């Protein structure tokens, strides 16, 4: 169980830095369909363990941030992130099952102090692997920048700090409560 939890934590940290960009100028009801399509692309890519479409959607500001923070080139950062994601999931069994829900119906729609539109969206990841399950309830932030929307899963304070470093007006996001529960699926059926 410790190995599963550690692997999942590493995977979620890598995945949480994967961002999806989409064209739009401000949040309105039409953007919801675009956001849903991008979320589905992320889920489909994860199911295939094909992270290239997800990383291809990441804005250059994030790659630049990691490159500057580490002293590595942007190309090296991209290769490292791809390799880490593939490595984490390579250790999962072929019987791994997961569902990832993004609850747009209960999203908090906000605007930052500089007028940037953003949403805080509750999420739920339910994953079973090798007879153990984990449920993680958390947050995704969708935010507008230069006429495009970006999505980022927020798992911890480090992720909030990264967003605030790149987008200082998003320093004080009102997140939903995040929880992590490990369970034995066999106990759930008895």
Report on this structure:
It is a single chain. Helix content is 43%, strand content 28%. The protein is α+β, with helices and mostly antiparallel strands and 190 residues long. The chain has one domain. Strands 1, 2, 3, 4, 5, 6 and 7 form a seven-stranded antiparallel sheet that branches. α1 packs antiparallel against α5. The longest helix has 19 residues. The N terminus is likely disordered.
Task: Reconstruct the topology from this structure.
Layout: H1 2-16, E1 20-23, H2 29-47, H3 52-56, H4 60-70, H5 74-90, E2 97-102, E3 108-111, E4 117-129, E5 132-145, E6 148-154, H6 157-166, E7 179-183, H7 185-189
Antiparallel strand pairs: 1-6, 2-4, 3-4, 4-5, 5-6, 5-7
What labels describe this entry?
7 helices; 43% helix; 28% strand; 7-stranded antiparallel β-sheet; globular; alpha+beta; single chain; 190 residues
């Amino acid at each position: 169980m410790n190995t599963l939890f550690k692997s999942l934590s590493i995977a979620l940290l890598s995945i949480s830095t994967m961002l999806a960009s989409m064209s739009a100028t401000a949040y309105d009801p039409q953007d919801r369909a675009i956001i849903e399509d991008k979320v589905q692309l992320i889920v489909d890519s994860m199911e295939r363990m094909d992270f290239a479409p997800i990383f291809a959607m990441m804005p250059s500001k994030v790659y630049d941030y990691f490159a500057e923070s580490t002293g590595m080139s942007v190309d090296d950062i991209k290769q490292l992130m791809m390799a880490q994601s593939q490595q984490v999931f390579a250790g999962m069994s072929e019987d791994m099952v997961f569902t990832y829900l993004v609850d747009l119906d209960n999203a908090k729609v906000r605007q930052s102090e500089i007028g940037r539109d953003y949403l805080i969206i509750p999420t739920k990841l339910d994953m079973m692997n090798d007879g153990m399950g984990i449920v993680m309830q958390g947050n995704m932030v969708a935010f507008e920048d230069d006429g495009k929307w970006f999505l980022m899963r927020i798992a911890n304070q480090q992720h909030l700090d990264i967003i605030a470093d790149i987008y200082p007006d998003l320093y004080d996001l009102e997140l939903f409560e995040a929880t992590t529960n490990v369970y034995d699926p066999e106990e759930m059926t008895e």
